[in-house]
Amino acid sequence: YVLIGNMTTSVVREYDSTTGAFISVLCPCPGPADMRIGPNGNLYICSYTNSLVREVNAITGAPVNQWSQTFGDRTNDIAFLPNGNILVTVMSSNVCYVYSPALVLLTSFAGTGWFRPHGIDIGPSDGNIYIIDGVTTQVHVFDPVTFTELNPAFRSPDPEDKIVDLEFSPDFSDPTPIEETT
Predict the structure, then answer these.
(1) pLDDT for position 167
(2) Strand 2-6 and strand 149-151: pairing?
(3) Rounded to whole angstroms, how far apart are CA atoms 116 and 98?
(4) Residue 182 has what pLDDT?
(5) d(CA 3, CA 91)
(6) pTM above the 0.85 mark?
């Protein structure tokens, strides 16, 4: 199945992954932004409208937990570090919050000159944190342990860009050479 957040109706809907047919409403969530299946198999949904993260059972939609950022922070995206810590980008405070797996706020960090952090992901080859700045259209790179900014300008932006999210593609290369036979 495919889960899609709908800002207009404030719900997360389930669709058939083959046909695209609507199956059901999984759960309510005010202004759902980005979401991700966590290491525990639950769905974590960023509520842009209510500045919170809602954790629900990914199969039934039953509420498991939720926690808030400062009201008006506009929670936008979420990622999980290998040690279980949770990263949440928020647009009004212009920071990325770091929570323990027990949802204790550990720290926050920000990029050089950024405004409105959007998408976040963990680099599969280097383990670094990559966060998009929606205003400067730049990708900032951070150390996953110290949260020190390693690179404030990961890419060369195009002036016509309006980037909001990123995802690393799987490595489709096969290190085993294919031998041709004749």
Answers:
(1) 84
(2) unpaired
(3) 17
(4) 46
(5) 23
(6) yes
